Structures are given as structure tokens and as C-alpha cells.
Fold each of these.
Amino acid sequence: MLTKRIIPCLDIKDGRTVKGINFVNLRDAGDPVELAEIYCDSGADELVFLDISASEEKRKTLADLVLRVAARIRIPFTVGGGISSVEDVEVLLKNGADKVCVNSAAVKRPELLNELSSRFGNQCIVVAIDAKKIDDSWKVHLVGGKVPTEVDLFEWAKEVEERGAGEIMFTSMDHDGTKNGFANEALAKLTELVNIPIIASGGAGNEQHFADTFIYGNSDAALAASVFHFKEIKISDLKKKLKEQGIPVRT
Amino acid sequence: MKLVQIDYGAGNVKNIQFAFERFGISPVLSSDPEEIRSADKVIFPGVGEASSAMEKLRKTGLDKVIPTLTQPVLGICLGMQLLCETSEENNTQGLGIISEEVKRFSNAVKVPQIGWNRIHDLNSHLFDGIDENEFMYLVHSYYVPLCDETIAVCDYEIPYSAALRKNNFYGVQFHPEKSSIAGEQLLKNFLSL
């Protein structure tokens, strides 16, 4: 049986991890490779690296990082942050990224997804969708959730599937950072609507939230950052808890 | 030990190279038939779409070379599927080493299958030291049905071939280079076949 995936997300700036990361055993808390190895050893199923830097050298720094991660990490990883062209993706995949995550650029120019999937296969194209519930409808937001659009979450999800996305990573802006749990109602609707895997993102605060998103949100994977970085949740403990509730996980 | 990875523009060559380098083996990436023939072991990688992969193999003449290899060959993911006769993916004619048809999962399940799944009924030295029901990482929309050449089984919608063997040709649907310690064990086993 295919298992539900637990995915720690690392925010990267200029090749270093950001946010105060609370790992006592780290020699260099800012080194994404070392942190990735720790997650890998503790049972993470995949990793996501999101580059939030805006520097001129961004592309080169990220490509170098991908190469270093790929050399050391024995599990799959996805890279995202400002990806907007076939060339961007080519460099990252060539350097060893398993998947890339596309967000704003796809909303601005949806054909990009067709180009990417026909060139590289849909298995490596993850589309990140940030959305917020306004009145009664979920609207897609851009630039890390800062810029609202008129695009409807569910229509967009359907469209990205048709254009060749292999997976959708859905972040609810209403839940992100709250630690009150994932947006399971919207997630359940998404998993019903499309036939590609859905990664739940935003809102993880405790172990039960992960169980809930798998049970009620029907999510295929759950992503979180701070609860792992600050060691509020240990991945090995989390998986034990999920297993106790009958949720298939890799242990 | 000379290990050659067939170079035809497949996507996951870097990760396969890194996986071997982690235990001290450096594969040579080559599209030269003589170089490939002279290898002790050959890796046939593959990620992406079947018809364009076959097109690349035909252009370089490698479609004629691969079936004549006599040393152990390991096809990974699409590399495994291309060992077969045909694929439903854009009606592709494969290398025909294994007379099976590659099929697409139905929409009763999410396609592609992405993630960690168990493999069982392990029946080859390729799996020495790997437990029954071990987890491996898979990403695929197409599968090879169970057949005489099946040496490991995975379940998604139906039981299907997680690995195949015919004579010196081996294939794995999962990604050993991304499957943690068990995957690494499989790569080591391949080298000692």
C-alpha cells in the first residue's frame, strides 16, 4: 500500500537555511545539507527546499546547493522558489533535484506547465498553490501569498492537472503559521476533484493535525517547517502516532 | 569493476551517479557502444516519457546495442519499462527483450503513483539483505503486469511487477538511488551479481 508522506520544508536564502533552527547537534545550523541529512535519518519521506532569496546570484547559488544535496541525500527532494522557465528547471534537474515546484510563474503564464511537463515528464512538476478564503471562495495568491488574484483555487487545480502537473502542493494562507491544523475541508474537495497527489501545507501544530489531514483532508502527503525545525514534533514519533491510527506510513 | 551508465539524455543520471559514488564506485556515463560493451555492469536509466526516450535510443543506434549486451544490465524506472515489447504510453515500441506490454494505471487510483510503497515476493540475488515488504520510492504512471520475469511485486490498484529479470537483464520500477538504505543495498547487490 502506498504510504502517506511526511515532508519537512527548508526555506533557503543565499544557499543557507533561514529561520532560527533549533537543533543542538548541528555543527552549522545554517547548512541546508546537514539539516537535510538529519531529517533523512529521522524518517522524512521527502524534502522540499524553497529558495526565498532575491539576489542576482540566486540561480547559481541554488544550482550549487542542489548539487550538494543530491550528492548526500538518499531520498527524493523538490526545489522551488522563483522558477519561471524551462531553463531554470533544466539546471535544477540536471544537478540532481527530483522535482521542481512552480508557483507564481504558472499563474502568470499557464503554458509554462505544458512546456515543462512535455519536456521533463509530469512526475517532476509540482505546482504550489497558495490560496485564501475570501467570502465564500478560495482565491489563489501570488508571491508567497502576498498578491491576491481572481483565480479560483479549484478551477486552477483542475487546470494545472490538465496542463501536466504531477502533484499539487496546496498552502492555505488562512492556516499557514496558525498551528491550528491543515485546511482539511478544502483539501478533501481538492483530492476529490483532481486525480494527482495532493500535498497539504500550512497549519501543522501537533501530531494529530497530520493524522487529521490524512483522514479528513484525504491528503497524500503533509508538509511542515517550524514544528520540525523547532523540534516540537519528531518525525519518528509522528509516524508512530500515525501508524497507531491505522494510517499507512513508512517506518 | 567498470560500471557504465547508458547516456541517452535520461533525467536521473546524476542521482544514480551520486548513489554509486556514496559507496565509492564511479560510473562512466557513455553512449559509445564499445565502451558500453566493455563494461562489467551496465545501468540503463530512465525518467520521462517512453516514445521520446525510444526516439533518442534509435537516433544513437543504442536500441540495437542494448539487446545484444551480455553482462548484467539494470534498467531503472522507465529504463525497466523500455526493456519490454510495447508501452501504452503513446503506443511505443520498446526494446522487446521482455515480451510484455507496459500499461497505464486506471483512474481508480491517483496517477502518477508517487511515494513509498512495499515490495514483496522478492526472488533474486538483487534483493539479498533486503527484507520482504521493504519500502521503496516510486514515481510512475505506467506499470508492467505480473509475468514470468517478475522477481518482485508491488501493489497499487493491482499487484504488478516491481522488478523483472530475463537472463542478464534486470529492471526495477522503483528508484533504488532514492530509496534510502535498502535502495543502496540493491545497487551494491547488482554490482556483485
Note: Chain A has a mean pLDDT of 92.
Amino acid sequence: MLAQQIVNAISLGGVYALFALGFTLIFGVLNVVNLAHGAVFMIGAYAALKAVVVLQLPLPVAILVAMLVTGAVGWLLEKFIFAPLRARQAPHLAPMIATIGVAITVTSLIEGTFGSENLRFPAEVLPAEILSMGGGAQITWLELEIIVLAFALMAILLWGLRKTGAGRALRGLAESPKAAALMGVNVEAFFRVTSILAALLGGAAGVLIALYANAVFPHMGQPMLHKGIAVVILGGMGDIRGALLGGFFLGFAEVLSVAYIGSNMRDAIAFGLLFIVLLLRPQGLFGHVAQRRA
Amino acid sequence: MEWLDSFWATYNTLVLSIGTNVLLALSIYLTLATGLLTVANAAFMGIGAYTAGLLTTQLGMPLIVALILGSLLPAVVALAIGRPTLRLSGVYLAMATLAFGEVVRILILNAEGLTGGALGLNGIPQLTQWFDVALAVVLTLVVLLRLARSRIGRTMAAICQDEIATEIMGLNVRAYKLFVFVSGGALAGLAGGLNAHFTFFISPNEYGFERAVDILAMGVLGGTGSPWGAVIGGLLITLLPELLRGLGHYRPLINGIILILIILYSPKGIWNLFRPVSESTRLPAAP
Amino acid sequence: MLTLSSISLNFGGLQVLQDVNLSVPEHGIFGLIGPNGAGKTTVFNLVTGLLTPGPGSIEFMGRRIDRMLPHRITRSGIARTFQNIRIFKEMTLIDNVLVALGGRPSYGVATVLLQWRNYRVAEGKDREVARGLLSKVGLADKSEQRAARLSYGEQRRLEIARALATGPKLLLLDEPAAGMNAVEKQQLIDEIVKLNAGGLTIFIIEHDMSVIMGLCHEITVLNFGRVIARGTPAQIRTNPEVIEAYLGKDEHSPSRPEGVSP
């Protein structure tokens, strides 16, 4: 059944990577550990669900709506939390704690509004056809779409970062805001764009996981956040390639451990890895000890 | 004194909770005042709670013994993970302790034979009396107040402001960090043990992320200027949801809003907690 | 007293120090100069244990200190000030010095907790010592003020008081004259001479040539991580390599205001 495990690992890993990308973007560019990323993820799931159930939108549109909603949340975060703290020259850890507050607040609000039970997508919405691939592996249309969407989003992001002028500006900004400003980059605008972009990715990941597991509940962001942290630490904070590789690494580690060790300790795998990496090589497997100049 | 009896009948859990929350706030005050953002105290509380709870239910030990051992075990664990973990700083330390907390919760969840797993530990004898909690709080406060005014408190504040300068002045920064981390863990364990014996039922989720944020909110609200801040923080965080009528189960929401507001608008006193640049003692070589 | 033998340090592909040898004799005032980025502060960081060298060794009073933890190095008798002043701005002056005295504790945790009166007595003695040090640098009248309110020059003096509180035998001063006016510089020079006369060995990094040349018995010159010259002030002043390092060829010497044309 190895082929099957590999398929599972790729779809799971793809979503982890997508989530981690958003998380690492904010760290790399804004230098903030955004612990509200899990809440954004959760909002994406709820937005898609409600778009389908309440607004009767087809699934692809619902996914877009979800991304729009989370993008807006990203904008709000930057405008009301990150930017003011930057302006005040707040100490390093302040934004992180503020995002903890946001995460907790948002989760509580969602729980109060929609209840704490597990909500599901209506069955007719989820494409359930199963395709058979070689080697005894089976994949549902849904899983295939998830993989395609995750990869597509990541590809667009990577292409954007490498090939467009805006992407180059963003990378320059990540290395040195002062230098970027001197070269005429509108730093504030780019910070806003980054926050929106990261939230988009997080929200998309939320929808995908919600579809994958067919479960939407208020606290779903939290374990995901922890895994996102693990992935980003593994791959190196702020390192795009690291987030990608780390995401797939975790996906594979989890799927294989469930298959061969048992599912109870699945979540502990991520944290165990995180802990070990932090102790042995804090800059991650691919990261470097980045010294932020000016 | 009839009103006292009826008051107690209604509010005894609340009052006792104030006491244990003050202990928790004091436990995080220690690390925050030294400039360490650690969110492991919820896990230490859980370890203490389960240890003490199991000792009384399974082995019939008296409360005082259970409490002592329930503080000792978290302290030992803190010592074990403290040495490597405290080499990290800033966000990495926070994330490592976050991860540690989750690992503990998952371990408790999975050790079903011992801890009852997701079903939790039931039937813990209601042994905690108000004077147990009061005694614990008073003793801890006296100790911490004295420490804070002594060279130890001064050194903690110095480490918070500038770790390297403090080390250069001949002070073993690593040892101080370990001291506050382990003491904080022991305190949190004590709070857990006391708490378990008046709520009589505990489960792993009691000691997860929500609890960690609870404790953090108390610490941030109270500030790091003095142990009294922790007292105020613990008091307010416990009482606020109750005072705002019927919002008792919106406690996380309140904590979240408090955290956001404090960070955005707090007076300078709380800023001292976070120095602008986090550096570990051994610099990566720089020209 | 302090010997660096074949010290090299590489960071991220950059060879920060290369085969540095220097020796600080006891009781002297020893200077380290060189253009910006030559590696002078790195030498201090290595000596005080904030960095670990690659190959090479550092010895202080007969003991190897290159692998020791910083606080142990300090306790063995080396104190330092920093280029960008690192006083505790939020604390009072006297607390700043008291923290440094905490490295040689006259009482322990047990005393604090159980013998309050003894602790008070010991703390009182420490305060006396702290006040004494503050008056030595002329800051006694401001002892209860917050350090952030001091002027730049006063902050430097506080740093020195704090360094002295650790009871050093060797004092490392990293550009102590930076940002000072002429009067303050003279006061600094007098202070250093006094400290040296009292038995303290001084190791000083400085850019201001008048300070260095006036104070030091011996000077080592660093450029691009290598020692390029060593000698008395007079020798260094006329050393062509030193002149070239600072100013390039065919330029004025660092100490002659009217310049020398080749």
C-alpha cells in the first residue's frame, strides 16, 4: 500500500506546505510570528462552508470567496495590529503576543456564532468519484483537486516571487526594509500585500483541509498552527523553499507514522520534530542564521 | 455568619480559583520578569494536577504529600528540558515551549491506562480548603517579594534588559534562567495540584493552549514590575468574565481582547518585558 | 598577563581574524587600533568569551580562557565596556552597579529568604561599595536617577563604574572616548591613568589618536583581521604600513595635523 500512502502524503503535505508558505512569508517579510495564521485558516474553512450552504454557491466559487474573506482578514491584521506596532517600534515579541490575542478572540467569536460542533459539507458538493491509479493506489476526485489546487497556488506564488518585479521587490524587502525603501519600494504597501497574500494561502489551506477531512469546527486552526510552526522551523523560518520541503516532509512523516506506528501519536510527531530541530539546529534544515541588516 | 456560608456555597470555586490563578500568574511572572516568553506553565500545571490527583486517588496519600510531589515532578521536567530549551531566545523559545506543552497534552491523552486519557481523571477527593490555597499564595508572595527586592530580582531585571551585558558582569545568566524556569514550573504544578482537588475532575484539555493563553494573559496584564502585578493579573483575569454578567464562558474572548489591548496600548512598564533585540549569550561571530 | 596566540576566526566565509598574536603586559596601558572593521571589537568579544575562536588560544594569568563561559572569565578578573554603551537604561545608577556586584555575591538565596536581617546588612554594605564606585567616576549625586537620563559622557562613566564593580585586574575599554568633547576626553585620560596607577591593567580600543598616543605604553595595530604593527606610540606613528592602512598611500600621517607630503 505504499503507493496509496504516497498519494495521501502528497495531498496532506501539499496543504501543509501551502499553510506554511503563508506563515513563513509573514515572518520573512514582516518579521512577525503570526500566531493568528491558524485562525485565518479556520475562517477560510467557515467562509467556504457558509458560501456553499447559505449562499448556495458552487464549490470553486466558494473557495474563491473564502480566499477573499481571509485576504480581508490579512489586510485587517496588517492595518490594525502589525502597522501600529511597527510605528511604535514595539519590541520584537509584541506582535506575536497580539496575534495570540487575535487568534483567541476570533476563535471565540466563531464558536459563539456558529457553535462548537463539527460541521460538514453537504455530500452532494464533494466529488466522491474514486480514480484508480497504478500500484493499488486510489485517489478521489476531491483529493486530486486538492493536490492540483495546492500545487497551483504554490506555483503561482513561486513564479510571482521569482519572475515578477513585484516579487523581486518583496524578496528585497524581506532582506532589508531600509534598503528596499531607499530603492523606492513602497514598503508599507508591500507589507499589506504580504499580509493579504499570506492570509489568502492560509485560507485556501483551510478550505482544502476542511474538504479533505470534511470537518469544520472552531478550533481546527490550532493543531494546524502548531504543525505550521513545526514545518517552518524544520525548513527554516522565512525560507520559502524550506516551507515547501518542510510541508511535504511533515506530510510524509505523519502519513507513514500513522500507517506504521498508529494514529494516536500522529500529532506528537510534528511537535517532537519541532522540539528536536529547535534544540539541535534552530535555523532549520535549510535555513541559515539570518542576520537582519538595517 | 449565615451570609458567609451562603456566599461560600455559591462562590467557593471562584475564590479558590482566584487563589490558584494568582499562583499561576506568579509562576509566569518569574520567567517574564527575566525576559523569557515561555508558555509551558499550563503543561507544568497539568503534570502537577495529574500527579497529585493520581497520588490521592490511587495511593490514598494525604494532600500535602501529593502537593509536594505534584510540584516536584514538574520541576524535574522543567530542569530536564530547561537546559537545552533556554538556549533559545525570543520567538524560538516561545514556540519550543508551545510545542512542549502540546507534547505533554498528547502524552497525557494517550497514557490512558494511567491518566484515563480523554475521559479524564474522575473522583478526585475535594481536599483543598481555602486555607491551603491562602497559605500557598501568602507563602509564595512573601518569598517572591523578597526575591524581587534582592539582588536576584535585580539580576532578573538586568537579564531581561540586556542578557549579554549581565553575563559580562560576572553573572551566570544560564543558571538564573534555569532557576526561574524550574521555580515557575514548580509553582504551576502546585497550582495544578490544588486546583485538581477542588474541581475533582481533570482532563488533558484543561492544560492545553487555552490555559496557556490564560496564564500568559495574566502575566501580560499584571506586568513584570513586581509580584503584585501578577496578583492583580490573576485576580482580574479570573474575575472579569464573572463580573461581565453571563460572559463566563466567553473567557477566552476576554483574554484575547485583553492581550490585544495591552500590547497595543500598555504603559511602558510592560514593555520592559520584551527587549528590542533578542540575543543569546553566544553570538554568532560578527565582525 | 593576557596573551592571544595565533587566534583566527572565520564567520560565514569571512576571515574576521587571521593569526593574531598579541600580549598585554601586566600593569601597562595597552592599545589596539586599526581602521573600522579591522576586527578590534572581535578581539574583545573573544577575550570576554562572547565568541569562540577557531584555532589559537587565549591565556589570562596563566589560565586558558578561550573556551570559558563569559561570566567565569569576568570572575577571573577581566571586565569590559562596550562600544555602544550597554548600561541598563531602565534602572537607577546604583542598581546598575549593584547588578555588577551581584557577580561576587556576599549573600545567597537562602540568606535572602531566611535571614532577612543579615541580608539587609550585606545589601547595605554592597550599597556602600556601589556608592563608592559611583563617586569615583563622579556620579554619586545621581545615584538614584534612572540611567536613561544621563548624558552620553555620563553613561560612559557609569559603564566604567559598573565594570570596576566586578573587581577586575584587567579592564577592556572599547572606544571609551567616542562622542566625547575635549574636556570629557581629558577627564577620561586622567581617570584611566589613575586607575592604572592603582594597579589596574588597561587594554583600550580607540579611534582618537590623541587619546591613544598619550595613554598607551604599547600599541598593536590591526588591519583586515591581521596584526600589521606593534610597538610604542612613537614607533606606530611613523610606521608606513600603519599610515597606509588608515589613509592609503601618499597621505597625511594620523598624528601630524599639518600632514606630510611624500
Note: Confidence is low (pLDDT under 50) at residues 256-262 of chain C.
Amino acid sequence: MNATSRAGFAPALVALGAALLCAGSVWGLAFAPPEVFMGEVQRIMYVHVPTAWNAMLVLTYAFACALAFLFTNHWKWDSRLEAALEMGVVLSLLLCTQGAIWAKPTWGVWWDWDPRLTTTAVLVFAFGGILALRAFVDDPARRAVWSAVACVIAFADVPIVYFSVKWWNSLHQSQSSPETVSKAFHWPLRINAFGILFLWTGLVAFRARVAALRLHGEIDVQPPAKLPATSLPRPKGVW
Amino acid sequence: MNGILAALRKDLLLTWRGRLQIVAVFAFGAAALLLFSFAIGPDSSALRQHAAGFLWLAMLLASTLSLAESFERELEERALTGLLLLPVSAAVLYYGKAIANLIQLALVGVLLVPVMVILYDAGTLRLLPLLGVIVLGAAGLSAPGTLYAAMTAQARARQALLPLLLFPLVVPVLLAAVKATSLLVLGDPMGQIRPWATLLAAFAVIHLSLCGLLFGRVVDEG
């Protein structure tokens, strides 16, 4: 289990991320100019937009971990998948909450059935469901394979959900990125994006280590690095 | 192909022998349709507006019953282990069961339509397109549902787990099927039904291929 050695840089990442997030937020709240139409409310963009980017990033990482586990059967990918799934659900929940706080003064409603908002809510439930699946399966090998499979399917479903809701209803403003917003907003946005990035990579490294240690306790004193041979793909299967 | 037909035949035979179960699932769906009308109140025009949504919500709720049942009986006396020892790939077993679930769900859907017509006065004479939407929607529900039922049947808290995993995933099916059925019931002056039916078909094809690919890993007896 090499996850123990790999978490060495995690505290540094978390500290750097927290510092950047503080710096970017202070800049965004106190020094950046208010937006012309939305006024002070718009300042939530400095956490909202970086959260959105990072939520997508961490869920993509979870998908990569799931694929890596299915192809290599290596336990380390299962621990990372668990950590990334939890972080993805937390960031998506934060994204929904921030969006609702911003939407009330801007649109006049907490919630709207727009494609990105609805897709994020669906993401929370889809990936939260996989966490529930992990909680209710006791056999570590089955838990690992099943959650990886569920993660691949859920990730493949995201674009379909997005486009189906888009056809169904639409109102959200177009995405904010450094190209679509004024130059005065760039720096706090970028600093916060990297702050959240470092924060979640550090926390995911920590969490993966915890998952790996728990796996240790569940399987054996000396767990095999890979799934036992009986759980390898069946020779007659499609694999 | 022969393997899929054999697996399908086995699953349909099982369904036929336990046909009371379909009746129970249908009764559950019909009861749900009756209950939905209490949420809206006795306003017949509002009920008619929402009839398609109610039909598909009833289908979705009923599907969790029939999907879960389809795998629970494979676990009795380790029948699944026996099936996996057969000289066919696990994907064949998946497709047999997914198609059997599709037929069963579509049958429940077809039986629920008259209930919808009577309760909500929401009928249509375009029966063939309606049947098509029901079959495509049932395919969209049973494609991921069969795979998830295989997992949750062997987990703790299975009654809660299957809907928890399945419902967020099938949001596109629900949206598209409700829209398409609504257009059939309330009229479709702009000819919008085709894109929704295409979305349903695309969802079913994507999930049938993906789940067929992954099913072998899920049912590994280990």
C-alpha cells in the first residue's frame, strides 16, 4: 500500500490552497470593482465559478480512477475513487448552494430548471447514490468493482442529462471564464480557482490515504496489491 | 444471438410462471396514478395537462419493483452462479434479462394507458406512436436498471439503493418520455415528437451497449 508515502505533500497542498483561497476572496470582496448590472451580488462569482470548474475536474478525476481500477484491478485506484467521489459530491453541493444564494437576488427565485443547475443537482444525487452503494456493500472487492462501474455509467450519463434538460428549458447565463468577464475580475477568479484546486487535491490525497488504511484493516494485514485472481475478469466474458 | 434468445426465453418463461407479479406491479402503478390526482385536486383540465407526467412517474416507481424482482429470484439457491457457469459471456445474460425487463415494463405501461385515459381524460388515437414511446421509454429504464438491480440485489438496504442509483440516471428518459407522451395526448402542431423519441432511443442504445460491456464485472461471483 503505497498511499501512505504519497500523502506526504498533502498538508502543503491544503495550506497553499487555503492561503490562495483567502487571498483571492479578499481581493474579490474588497478590491475588485463591483459589476455594472448585478452590483455587489456578483462577487459570489469569485467562489462560484472556480467551484464549478473544480467540481467538474474532480468528477473527471473520479471517472479516470474508476476506469483505471477496472483496467488494472489495483486497490490504490479504489481508494482514490472513494476520495474523489466524496470531494465531487461536496463541491457539487456547494455549487448548488452558491448558485441558489446568487439566484435569489438576481433572478428572484432560489431555484430554476436551467440545464446547468439541474445537471448539477442530478450529479449530486447520482454520485451521492454511488457513495451510498459503497456504504451498503461489505465485501471490499465487490464494493470496488461496483462503484467503479456505477461511476463510469453516471459519468457517461452527464452529457445526456445536460442536453435533455437544455432542450426542455433554458435560462442560465452563459458560462463565465476569463474571456467573458472584464479584466478587472481576472486575478481573484484565477487565484481562487488554483486555491480550490490545491485544496481539493490535498484533501483527496488525505482522504485516499484514510480509505487505503481502512482497506488494510478490512482485507488482511498484508493485502494483495491487486484483486485476488478469482475476481479477475472471467475468461469467457466480453473483457 | 442464440444465447440471447435462450436467456430471453428463460426470463420470459419465469415471468410467465410468476405472472401474478406483473399484475401486482400494474396494480401498484394504477394506485400511484390514482394518488397523483389527489396532489393536483379535482381540476380536470389540470389533470389532463399533467397526465403524461403522472403516467411516467407511475412507470418509474413500478419499474423499481419489477427490476429488483428480476434479480432477487436469480439469487435464490445461487441460480446466478449456475448461469455464469454456462459457456456464454455475461453480456448475453444481461441482454436476455434487459429485454425481458423491457417487455415486462412495456406491458405494464400499455396496461396503465387505459387507467390514464379514464382517470385524466387524456387519450390519443395515435396508438402506434404511443406504443413506440412506451417501448423506448421502457428500454431506457430497463437498460441501466437491469445492471443496477444486479448490484443492489446483493447489497444491504437494497430497497432504497436501487431507486437512489437509478432515478438520477434516468432523468433524460423521464423528461423525453413525458414530453413525447404529452405531445401525443395534447396535440403536436410543431411536429416536436421526433427529437424526443430520438433522445429516448439514443439513451437506450448508449446504456444498452455500456451496461452490456460492464455487466461481466458486476456479476463476478468471486
Note: Confidence is low (pLDDT under 50) at residues 1-5, 232-239 of chain A.
Amino acid sequence: MTPDGIDRGGAEELLEGLVRIASPSGHESAASHFLVDWMSRHGFDAQVDEVGNAVGVRGDGSREILLLGHIDTFQGIVPVRREGRLLFGRGTVDAKGPLAAFAVAAAAVEPQTEWRVTVVGAVEEEAASSRGARHILESRGNDPPIVCVIGEPSRWDRITLGYKGRLMLDAIMRVPLGHSAGNLKLPPELGVDLWRTVTAFCEERDAARQAQRAFDRLMPALQQMNSANDDTHGVVTLTIGFRLGPRDQPETLPGELEARLAEWARREGITDMQLRFAGAERTHKAPKATPLVRAFLASIRAAKGTPRFVLKTGTSDMNVVAPGWPATSLAAYGPGDSSLDHTPDEHIDLAEYARAVEVLTAVLTRLTV
Amino acid sequence: MSAEAECPECAAVIELDDDVVEGEIVTCTECGMELEVVPGNPWSLTPAPEEEEDWGE
């Protein structure tokens, strides 16, 4: 039992209660109010903020530890059920498990005089807007937190140090139609050629930089491709997502891609091609020699674990806040297996959830003594 | 007086700061290995965790 009386059942009740309230991006209100109500009953000064984030604060010191989770989930319903110690449901792993662990741990630690601990269940992390985290970033102004833990599944004994960046590209081409028996390339064939040009660009860039690890590579994904005929012309649209490495600059990458695709389009005689870039996020890798990482290493070992570091190929709210808070100690942490993110089999092991609460409680204690 | 501990990789003696704490990451000045400070009379050093990669968020 934790010092404020939250026993294992209470911690599981919070998580299951959150999971039972569906909260896909843009529809988080009921879940946010549920969490705020729970935090208000467990020693937090809690409210739903202007953009819908659930925010709970303990202590009133000037030194802030921010536990930044997200309360929205990926779309789709995964029926909530228990199988032994496994809890199934949308958001159990991504990321209501980590968020509930934050709230339970923060409720268990009495903040020391100069500290305050803030738990945030941010909205729209699963949307490209990251509205909740951006609001938190802006609201801190010139007073960033000393420490920020992002709530994402890492496994209870691992510390996530980095997330790849992201860039989205919509490519739209309008090309004259020709007979399929002729020697003109048909619009869908040009769409495939554009995709191949993009993959070649990425592979050549990785080879030149000797980028071997997934974290270091520029990784394209063809998310959609459609073609339709418009009288005498065909229109091909492609949506391509890029996962960026640490050396890919979201400011300059669009220009480099534009140059390469313009050269290809000239060779193919394409005169009507539009490229629209959006959703840029820079890759972030946090340093290891920080008070936060120290606290996690010691706390995981104290819980009889062997700590490990992990770098993720995805993107999280760490990418959003890190550029604005260069002096803040950052890491991501939370129970759960991220390979279950967004899947119809999403579930969490409640024993692992309890161990993550134990580790987080120890981390908060070590940071604030 | 500052503490000393031995690098488990190259056996170099590493001087630790007076305010060293458990979980701190230090780099061996001889072999460059990243090391984690763990408890042990009063401190000892173990190789810092490797960086793994994981697909997803």
C-alpha cells in the first residue's frame, strides 16, 4: 500500500476506469474529468485546462517535476476484459497504463518544500496536432520544468531516451493519359516511380552517412496512393511519412526532397506536380548523464531489475517539448509493450503496471529529497 | 577525500567526485567506456546499459 492509502486494487481500479472510457483523439473530455476527479480525491489540486488536458498538481514549490502522459488513444474499440493478470482494452499500453502509473506514484510521494509534481493527461497526442503537449509547452513560458517524464510504454525496467522525428509529404501529380499499349507511362506507374525515387533518395543518404541503426536512418513509409482519371488527364496522389534520424533537419529536408523529385519529374516530362510538407518534428535523444536518468537507474535496480536504455522509431510528445526545454532532464517511461500499440490485442500485465508504480514512486522520492 | 573505483573493462582506477550518487553515468578516461555507479564499498562501477531499439512509440 502506498503512503496515501492507494492499494494495488485502487491503482488497478484507476487504470481500468480510465480504459473503460473511450477517448480517441478529440474526444477526451469524459476521461479527463474522470482522472481529474480521481486526482482531486488523492491530494492533487486538479482541473481540466483550457484545451482539455487533465492536470493535477501536488506541492507548491518552484522546482517542477512534470509527468506528461496522454489521455487520448488510437482509434478503435478493444473490448475491456481481464484474463488472469492481463487487462485488455484500447489505451492499456498506449498510454493510459503509463498515465495511471504517474498519477498513483505522484499521489504516493509527499512533495518536499521546494518541489511540485504535476501530472498531465494531454489531449491529441495521437493526432499530428499534439495540442495538449503544445499547450503545456506554451503555458510554461520561460519557466520550464526541471524534470519531465513522458508517459509512453517502455517496459518497467527500461528508460526511453529518444524518439525519431517525423515529416509528412503529400505529392499530387496531374499527367496526360495515354493508351496502355503505348510507350507513355500511365499515371499509377508514375506514382510507383515517384515512390521508388523517394526510397532511393533515403537509401543513398543513409549509405553516405553510414547510418545502420533504425534510429539513425531516414525511413520512408508509403501510407496511401490513389489514382483517378480526370477527362484527358490522370491524377495520382501519394501520402508518404518519413521517420527522421538525428541528422535529418526538418527545416532543410523538404528542399532536398523537392530538388530530387523535381529532377525526376523533368526527366519524365511531368509539368504539374505539387509537393506539400507538414507535421515536422525533430528527432530527440536525451543525454544519459542527468539527475532523472540516475534516479531511474537506481530505482530499477532497487526493484531488482536490470535497467536498459531504449530508442524508439516512433514519435511522441518528447519531440514536441524537447526543443523548447533544452535544460530540462527528459526521458520517457511507462509499463507495457509498445509492440501492442494500436493493435486489436492491446493489453497490459497488471504485475508490470505495479512494478512501474514502484519504480516511479522511488524516482520521485530520489529526485525530491 | 574523493572515492575511487575500478573500471570493469580495463581496470583503470577512476576517481569519483565527492558528491557522486548511485546511478550516475561516468566515462572511463582510459578506455572510454560508459559506466554506471552502483553501491559497493562505497562505490563500484558496472558497464552502463546498452541502447536497444524498439519499434513504436
Note: The domain at 165-281 of chain A is CATH 3.30.70.360 (Alpha-Beta Plaits).
